[in-house]
Write a structure and sequence with these properties.
heterodimer
């Protein structure tokens, strides 16, 4: 029975086994294409099915061409152009799947909402055990959302403080600051960790620092709306300190030796706390200056304006304050 | 019993037994009535007047506006997505937020390019996020939904401009706050009605939050807009 058939002599399975004479070229991509989100993705059975499908499509196209254009020359031209188009499309989709594959990032976004909530709360609770390497979750969803939230809060702060950006836009500055801090400081601390032989990967560092921004977001959200200096200092020490302590404790638990620990954690603590200080004061001075001047008409306005503001902006502020003081005094 | 046996076999099992012997001539005339309509059907819209094309597209856009204003669980926005409506809304919003006069000293107002870039890059990031979280919606479908759901915010912007034609007082601020808050929550609700269906059930909150943030930023830009004196 099976000896009489030529090419289909391996037809033993009910689903039609692999026919080797039909394989032209196996698509070789280094990355598993997870675009097919079903459970059979990655199995060679699916690839064979896809190839059979493609062969059938090409046969259909050829049959269509023969039906529409009875002339042989036109058939050939049509066939060649179709095949060129198909080949080009396949090449482009292969290249796209290889290089612009966002599925590389897919495992890092595999979280549940309650996990994100727990990690947010845990980012303010310093761990006690530093002799045992602490577990750091490697996910990117929470950090990215926190960075975007901080961008939104920064925008609000910049707007209410009347900041004037000369070269660039408000949005660009906010995004640049937040993303630059997150990515830049993570890379820098990862580099220092490499020097100090700390056991932490880049993804874990990104995740750790991203969650450490939760404290920053809370402090900025409160103090951009309630303008009390003492409140800011208390929040800076307490909440900023807690999130810094958490990150420092995790890093200490993963580093050996007193000097590397001191070096790495000192740098991280300094950068993290100073960043919060910078964010508060960079966009706060204008409002402060105007508020102080309005309280005391005897104080000359020029001395209360911040010194490191660009010249044009400070001239505008001076003119405004003088006119307001004149109005207040005339009443 | 034979019928039961036949129905239990796979459908085309009997066909492999059929063979056509060579001495029976099989010939005839098979002519497929292929007229000139088939390949030209795809290009027939080239011959219609421009007014018809524009009106058809405008009607599709208007139908989707109605779907956004009354967000039921329909798939009209998803099945034939288009980006004309989002472009129209985005340009209108950006023009209205620009304020008209270009004051060189007062750069606190968002420029046209800023609003445009925020809307489109925000939509792209939300789409990437929902795809990475395992969503089944395609890239352009998601862009389409997010763009169309800016409609309530555009309406709020128009209302705010009208309110600001009057006096700049705290009453007008409260009115604008209420209008912007209502339209921003409407936008978020409308877009989640379309987007959240394509996500696994327990991860809806993870997709809703960036959408909320996105419309919040746009709503905040509308609320803090003040016309030039």
């Amino acid at each position: 029975m099976s000896a009489s058939q030529g090419s289909t002599n391996t037809n033993t399975e009910p689903w039609g086994s692999f026919e080797d004479n039909n394989i032209i070229q196996v698509t070789g991509s280094a990355v598993i294409d997870m675009e097919n989100m079903d459970d059979t993705s990655g199995s060679s059975f699916e690839d064979m099915g896809e190839m059979h499908q493609r062969m059938k499509e090409e046969e259909e196209v050829t049959a269509e061409a023969a039906a529409i254009h009875p002339d042989l020359g036109e058939v050939l031209i049509y066939l060649v152009s179709t095949q060129v188009w198909q080949a080009g499309k396949q090449q482009a989709s292969k290249a796209f799947n290889l290089y612009a594959n966002i599925d590389i990032l897919r495992p890092y976004f595999d979280v549940e909402p309650n996990q994100v909530r727990n990690r947010l709360i845990e980012s303010l609770i310093p761990v006690r055990m530093i002799n045992f390497p602490q577990k750091v979750a490697g996910e990117l969803y929470g950090p990215m959302m926190l960075v975007f939230t901080m961008v939104a809060i920064l925008l609000h702060g910049m707007k209410t403080s009347g900041t004037v950006i000369r070269e660039g836009t408000l949005m660009g500055t906010a995004i640049g600051t937040c993303f630059g801090y997150w990515l830049g400081v993570s890379s820098f601390i990862y580099f220092l960790a490499y020097l100090c032989n700390a056991q932490i990967t880049m993804l874990q560092m990104l995740s750790l620092l991203g969650y450490g921004l939760f404290g920053h977001c809370m402090v900025l959200f409160i103090t951009y709306n309630v303008h009390f200096h003492s409140l800011f200092y208390i929040l800076w020490l307490v909440i900023g300190g807690l999130s810094t302590l958490r990150m420092v404790a995790v890093l200490i638990s993963r580093t050996v030796g007193q000097t590397p620990r001191l070096f790495l954690c000192g740098t991280l603590a300094a950068l993290h706390m100073l960043f919060l200080l910078y964010l508060h004061f960079a966009y706060h001075k204008m409002v402060e200056g105007i508020l102080d001047t309005l309280e005391g008409p005897n104080i000359p306005p020029i001395q209360r304006v911040a010194r490191d503001v660009p010249v044009v902006a400070s001239a505008v502020v001076n003119a405004t304050i003088k006119s307001i003081a004149a109005v207040v005094q005339s009443q | 019993m034979a019928e039961v046996e036949e129905s239990s076999k796979p459908l085309f099992a009997g066909l492999s037994d059929i063979s056509i012997s060579e001495d029976i001539p099989v010939e005839g005339d098979i002519s497929v009535p292929v007229g000139s309509q088939n390949p030209d059907d795809d290009f027939s819209t080239l011959d219609e007047p421009v007014k018809d094309t524009i009106l058809r597209d405008l009607r599709a856009v208007g139908q989707k506006f109605v779907h956004v204003l009354y967000p039921k669980k329909s798939s009209a926005l998803l099945k034939d997505w288009d980006l004309w409506g989002p472009l129209l809304l985005c340009v209108t919003l950006a023009l209205m937020l620009q304020g008209g006069s270009a004051d060189s000293g007062e750069d606190g107002r968002p420029q046209f390019a800023e609003v445009f870039v925020i809307i489109w890059f925000g939509s792209v990031i939300i789409t990437l996020n929902s795809k990475l979280l395992g969503g089944t919606i395609s890239f352009f479908q998601s862009l389409c939904v997010l763009g169309y759901c800016i409609l309530p915010l555009t309406v709020a912007m128009i209302v705010c401009r009208i309110v600001l034609l009057g006096a700049l007082s705290s009453v007008s601020f409260v009115v604008r706050l209420i209008v912007v808050t209502a339209s921003f929550s409407w936008s978020t609700f409308a877009s989640t009605a379309f987007l959240a269906d394509s996500q696994p059930a327990n991860r809806k909150a993870l997709v809703v939050y960036p959408v909320f943030l996105f419309y919040f930023v746009i709503g905040w830009m509308i609320l803090t807009f003040s016309p030039s004196p």
